[in-house]
């Protein structure tokens, strides 16, 4: 029995502040191989811009060696970088769709637009889809954890076998992709795999796919999702009433303190979002709340207003409880140093 451990998972927290604020230009297609206009992009922590998308094979035969070109541009359509990449899975079967993830080489803050082009592909022999993935339950809290089994039903050893975890948002756009370390799986043998990663608050559904040098699997949905705590709180910001971030808050000016609140399970859940503002000596200055109800897996923005009356430095704590004062979200470290003067 071999074990596959995820070594490099690119699941990124996708906050409003790091999105590329532009729509892409229409992607290209060629002779039945096309890029649907469902790309998604954001800034990575290192400042580079990554574009996720898919390539659709509408031909009657498989293709491989697919090249996808991304033109990264500023907001005046001036080219900053031309980057060519390929799909995660090398062979796209007839009627199949596979993802790509291509990041800019440059960490250039001027990147504001991008264009996706199909740069080439070749006809290919098919790969037998004899790799079976049996996922366990995906446990979602502040981290993602999933384990399961990959089985080789082929007549040859499955060499250099990689697993990919793909996260989709509510619009079926890819928002993150994770890649496992390669492993060999013997004939009629299986391997246990385990994946641990950061959790993305934008992800709504998950798929697994595998490919080796000689075989591949079908896309397998992850249907069993559990949560140790059902709500994640992230991306807390402090703004004025029009939504503009504050550097320094004037005394007696209204402040909006907002967080992204994500419900992870498909159930109805009333909740109370609490904000506690403290001075640096630990004294509590303000407690406010926002009440809401989740009807299933969803993202909401929770906002509480506060008007400071005394100059000083403050920090914010956030909590989400149910109406019986039972925590629904993990505690969030104290954040958002606020200067009032």
What would your notes on this structure say?
With 341 residues, the chain is mainly beta. The chain folds into two domains: 226 residues, Immunoglobulin-like (Sandwich), CATH 2.60.40.3230; 110 residues, abc- transporter (atp binding component) like domain (Coagulation Factor XIII, Chain A, domain 1). It is 0% helix and 55% strand. The chain has no helices and 26 strands. The strands form five sheets. Strands 1, 10, 11, 12, 13, 14, 15, 16, 17, 18 and 19 form an eleven-stranded mixed beta sheet that branches. The N terminus is likely disordered.
Q: Key terms for this structure?
A:
341 residues; mainly beta; Immunoglobulin-like; Coagulation Factor XIII, Chain A, domain 1; 2 domains; 5-stranded antiparallel beta sheet; 0% helix; 55% strand; globular; disordered N terminus
